[in-house]
Structures are given as C-alpha cells and as structure tokens.
C-alpha cells in the first residue's frame, strides 16, 4: 500500500455493522467484575480479589454508555457476569439505550437467573457464549442447558460453547466434546491457553489438534498475528476492564504503548478517529477478526466457522 493510499485508508470510517436488523457502531467487551464462583487452574484471573460493582457504580456506567456515539453491541464478561448483583437491571438499562447485548458466562447460573437475563434482553441478545470448564462441569450438562437458551434467541442471534484448550484436555476436546456438540448442532470453539498473556508452548502434535479444532475461536489460526495491518480496534471496538479503564483491545490492555489506553470509561474516553496500524504480535481479540475490522481479513458477522485460511 502506497503512502497516499495508506493515509486515505486510515481516515476511512467503518461502515455500520448490521446485527439483528440494526445498524451498530461497534462492539465493546466489558469485563464487568472480577468475581467468579470457579477457580480454574488455567485461569489468569484466579488470584484476583473478588469484586463486583455497587449500585451507584453501575448507574455511573449506564450513564457513560448512554454518552457513547451511536448504538453498540456490548459483550458482558468478567469474572462471571451472573455473579454481578443487578445484572438484569444493567441489561434493561443498556437495551433501553438502544444497545445490543452479548454475554460470556460459565453457565453455572440457575435456570431462573438465565431466564431473567433473557427476559431483560428483550430481543436485543446477539450472542450467548457458554464457557465449558471441564474441571467443574460436563459437555452433556451444557447440551441440556442449551435448551433453556436457544428457543428464546431472535433470528440472527446465536448460542455457542467455548473451552480453553489446555494440553491435557486436547484429545478429550477433539474426540469426545466436539463430536457431542456437533451431533446437537451446537457451535463449539476452543481458545488456546495463555500464560501471562502469552500463548503457552504446545508440541507440534498438540498444535495439529488445535488446528483440527478450528484454532483460536474458529479463526483457523492458533496465534493470529496482524501486526502492521490497519485495524478499527480503538475506534469501533474497545475493551473496558473491571476498574473502568478503557483500552483499544486486549493486547493493548497489557501495554503502555501509543494509542493503547483510551482513558477512563467513567471519567471520559477518546476513541480513535479511524483504523490504526496494529502494533501487537498476537491478536487474541476475535471480535475485530469476526466483524471484518482488520485490513485484509474479510469475515462476515458470525460466531462459528473459520474466518480466515488456516495458517501454513
């Protein structure tokens, strides 16, 4: 790409995303708390102190979401979002502002809690992602629980199951878990394990199993690298950590580099004015990948199926 073409591209606004029949400005990943009822051995947050937000803090967040330009898809995670008091009121408030809702949960909440969440989303629920942690639950249980969610999804919404692909679980995920979900037509995705934010060492045989399982979140890649490509993260996608700090993306939240931090969500953030060059060697934010926000990666809005050609 020549310099003039590059300068033109970096000022080009992204077209609105069409999700559930609505034009959406972008996507926000909100790690809404640090509280989880699980302590998985591979979890990077297992040593963090438990903390949920108080009611007055939540009201401040709702006001901040209301000040955003346009309407956004807000992906709720944690911690465990169902451990956050007042989750239904939060969702109702976001939906009333015109935002869409997605959620990442360990699926341990009671049937009644899940039903109340679905009621609160009132047709604005885009993705319900259930994280299978085999140290605490079974794939068979998730098949049964999926029946609580899928009948209530609007056209264009989806349900999927994800699981961290630790080396000791790889064969089980490939030979038992993935076929079970396939038989029940449930989208299943794996996430390679990270240690301190860096992909752990896998043997060549283990990497092959990861590829057979679709790679990181069905991208076909084990550790996607888009360094040097223009990306709309920071403009049409960003991350809010549990302390309210806002970052361009997840790799940016571990960096102090230029354009990494966008500000404090409650006190004010400054979104980037367009796509910027990715400075990171490992992209573990599959939202920009699956929403077509990265130069040269053409992907429809989806929650299953490969978004790119597998790495060679």
Kindly describe this structure:
- This protein is of the alpha/beta class and 312 residues long.
- It has a domain at 3-132 and 223-290: Aldolase class I (TIM Barrel), CATH 3.20.20.70.
- It has nine helices and 16 strands.
- The protein has helices at 3-10, 55-66, 87-96, 111-121, 139-149, 170-183, 204-212, 250-253, 286-290; strands spanning 17-19, 22-24, 26-31, 72-77, 100-105, 125-131, 158-165, 187-192, 194-195, 198-199, 230-231, 237-240, 245-247, 261-264, 268-269, 276-277.
- Helix 3 runs parallel beside helix 4 (111-121).
- The two termini are 24 Å apart.
Give a short overview.
By secondary structure, this protein is α/β, with parallel strands linked by helices.
CATH class annotation of the domain at 3-132 and 223-290: Alpha Beta
Count all strands and give the number.
16
Secondary-structure element sequence?
HEEEHEHEHEHEHEEEHEEEHEEEH
Number of helices: 9
Describe the protein's topology.
Elements: H1 3-10, E1 17-19, E2 22-24, E3 26-31, H2 55-66, E4 72-77, H3 87-96, E5 100-105, H4 111-121, E6 125-131, H5 139-149, E7 158-165, H6 170-183, E8 187-192, E9 194-195, E10 198-199, H7 204-212, E11 230-231, E12 237-240, E13 245-247, H8 250-253, E14 261-264, E15 268-269, E16 276-277, H9 286-290
Parallel strand pairs: 3-4, 3-12, 4-5, 5-6, 6-7, 7-8
Antiparallel strand pairs: 1-2, 9-10, 11-16, 12-13, 13-14, 14-15
Helix pairs in contact: 3-4
